[in-house]
């Protein structure tokens, strides 16, 4: 194993140890462990020779500056928050690879024709506030101020959390790198699916990222005594939600070639066995490679929810939390990455990403590119998540060569 790979592995393990839960890896946005991870990342970036900073959302940023003041910007990034009971590679692998690449450049003392940034995005999973990409949306100048009012499950608001970070809400979408100054964005990330294992290949190109809609749905019925209310006089919010959720699954199954549908989070009140549920809220996650189709499906489900609510005399609230169109990776960057893959990997394949990534937000300002890295059996969002040292070594060689070849071109202004 070369020294880069062994350092990457050590750092992945070290970050994987930082968790809010003793039993498993859980590092939600803005928690104690999240802040601890932030400090570690800052230290590693500084060690790699980068100028470091953080921002109001909690992104950790490092940069190797070009001496050319008009140089464009190139960023390598991924996220350092996690889901509950997570694996340690999802997110951190991309950041740590980026730090290692920057380290290699600063060691060589190479004069860079572009400013090379590494960004560890504070929140991508959206587990705490049910809003994905909080970190990268700030970098892309797309932070929606309405999000500040959002609260987590314990009533703690996003604005309260962010007030503890450096920065000003007023300027939240200012001081960003303007689109014309971007050279590109690159995100190495585990595949989180089984294709690379099936194809027996360590890495691959990513063609693009599926469109995604996130909706919060609330059903307001009437709570009542489970023993005294006759069945036909009830306004049971949980039964309404259940009818809807099975409809969501059905629609997904009917359109499985181009759609996945998930209700992953649900809250029922008062949530006791002898009371009819009066208030239920749940998430809805819809994804498709086809923007128009996703728009139509979202409307279809909205009308279905309205109908159920009307028939069951339930009040419905439908709140679209996020709507991200599909993303196509930049052709020029993809070609350059393909050349590097061919040097260090026997096979070259290209697949789309069903999972969302920070590249979605960055695509609003920069040409984006992604490299997928094989994870064992395609398992992710799970402690069983695993990437072999050999595959990490390949991903480092490919990623470094990709950036190095871009740097050799020296024609960016
Ligand atoms: Zn991820």
Automatic annotation (TrEMBL):
<feature type="binding site">
    <location>
        <position position="189"/>
    </location>
    <ligand>
        <name>Zn(2+) 1</name>
    </ligand>
</feature>
<comment type="subunit">
    <text>Homodimer.</text>
</comment>
<feature type="binding site">
    <location>
        <position position="274"/>
    </location>
    <ligand>
        <name>allantoate</name>
    </ligand>
</feature>
<feature type="domain" description="Peptidase M20 dimerisation">
    <location>
        <begin position="215"/>
        <end position="301"/>
    </location>
</feature>
<dbReference type="Pfam" id="PF01546">
    <property type="entry name" value="Peptidase_M20"/>
</dbReference>
<dbReference type="InterPro" id="IPR036264">
    <property type="entry name" value="Bact_exopeptidase_dim_dom"/>
</dbReference>
<dbReference type="InterPro" id="IPR002933">
    <property type="entry name" value="Peptidase_M20"/>
</dbReference>
<dbReference type="InterPro" id="IPR011650">
    <property type="entry name" value="Peptidase_M20_dimer"/>
</dbReference>
<dbReference type="GO" id="GO:0016813">
    <property type="term" value="F:hydrolase activity, acting on carbon-nitrogen (but not peptide) bonds, in linear amidines"/>
</dbReference>
<keyword id="KW-0464">Manganese</keyword>
<feature type="binding site">
    <location>
        <position position="79"/>
    </location>
    <ligand>
        <name>Zn(2+) 1</name>
    </ligand>
</feature>
<feature type="binding site">
    <location>
        <position position="90"/>
    </location>
    <ligand>
        <name>Zn(2+) 2</name>
    </ligand>
</feature>
<feature type="binding site">
    <location>
        <position position="214"/>
    </location>
    <ligand>
        <name>allantoate</name>
    </ligand>
</feature>
<feature type="binding site">
    <location>
        <position position="381"/>
    </location>
    <ligand>
        <name>Zn(2+) 2</name>
    </ligand>
</feature>
<comment type="similarity">
    <text>Belongs to the peptidase M20 family.</text>
</comment>
<feature type="binding site">
    <location>
        <position position="90"/>
    </location>
    <ligand>
        <name>Zn(2+) 1</name>
    </ligand>
</feature>
<dbReference type="GO" id="GO:0046872">
    <property type="term" value="F:metal ion binding"/>
</dbReference>
<keyword id="KW-0479">Metal-binding</keyword>
<feature type="binding site">
    <location>
        <position position="125"/>
    </location>
    <ligand>
        <name>Zn(2+) 2</name>
    </ligand>
</feature>
<keyword id="KW-0862">Zinc</keyword>
<protein>
    <submittedName>
        <fullName>M20 family metallo-hydrolase</fullName>
    </submittedName>
</protein>
<dbReference type="InterPro" id="IPR010158">
    <property type="entry name" value="Amidase_Cbmase"/>
</dbReference>
<dbReference type="Pfam" id="PF07687">
    <property type="entry name" value="M20_dimer"/>
</dbReference>
<feature type="binding site">
    <location>
        <position position="287"/>
    </location>
    <ligand>
        <name>allantoate</name>
    </ligand>
</feature>
<keyword id="KW-0378">Hydrolase</keyword>
């Amino acid at each position: 194993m070369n020294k880069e790979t062994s350092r990457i592995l050590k750092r992945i393990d070290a970050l994987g140890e930082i968790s809010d839960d003793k039993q498993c890896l859980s590092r939600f946005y803005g928690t104690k462990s999240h802040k601890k991870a932030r400090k570690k990342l800052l230290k590693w970036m500084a060690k790699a020779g980068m100028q470091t900073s953080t921002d109001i959302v909690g992104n950790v940023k490092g940069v190797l500056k070009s001496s050319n003041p008009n140089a464009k910007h190139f960023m390598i990034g991924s996220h350092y928050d996690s889901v509950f009971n997570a694996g340690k590679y999802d997110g951190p692998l991309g950041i740590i690879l980026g730090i290692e690449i920057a380290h290699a450049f600063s060691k060589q003392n190479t004069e860079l024709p572009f400013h090379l940034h590494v960004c560890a995005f504070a929140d991508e999973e959206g587990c705490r506030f049910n809003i994905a990409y909080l970190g990268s949306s700030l970098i892309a100048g797309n932070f929606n101020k309405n999000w500040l009012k959002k609260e987590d499950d314990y009533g703690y608001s996003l604005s309260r959390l962010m007030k503890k970070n450096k920065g000003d809400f007023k300027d939240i979408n200012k001081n960003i790198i303007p689109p014309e100054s971007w050279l590109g964005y690159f995100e190495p990330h585990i595949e989180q699916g089984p294709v690379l294992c099936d194809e027996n290949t360590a890495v691959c190109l990513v063609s693009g990222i599926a469109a995604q809609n996130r909706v919060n749905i609330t059903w307001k019925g009437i709570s009542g005594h489970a023993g005294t209310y006759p069945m036909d006089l009830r306004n049971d919010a949980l039964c309404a939600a259940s009818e809807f959720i099975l409809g969501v699954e059905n629609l997904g199954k009917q359109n499985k070639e181009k759609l996945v549908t998930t209700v992953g989070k649900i809250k029922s009140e008062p949530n006791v066995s002898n009371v009819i549920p009066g208030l239920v809220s749940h998430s809805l996650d819809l994804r498709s490679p086809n923007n128009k189709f996703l728009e139509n499906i979202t409307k279809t489900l909205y009308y279905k929810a309205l109908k159920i609510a009307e028939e069951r005399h339930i009040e419905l609230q439908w709140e679209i939390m996020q709507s991200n169109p599909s993303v196509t990776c930049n052709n020029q960057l993809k070609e350059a990455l393909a050349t590097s893959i061919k040097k260090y990997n026997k096979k070259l394949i290209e697949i789309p990403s069903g999972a969302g990534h920070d590249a979605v937000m960055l695509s609003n300002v920069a040409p984006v590119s992604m490299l997928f890295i094989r994870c064992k059996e395609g398992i992710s969002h799970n402690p069983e998540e695993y990437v072999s040292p050999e595959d990490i070594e390949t991903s480092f060689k490919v990623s470094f060569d990709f950036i190095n070849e871009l740097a050799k071109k020296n024609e960016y202004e």
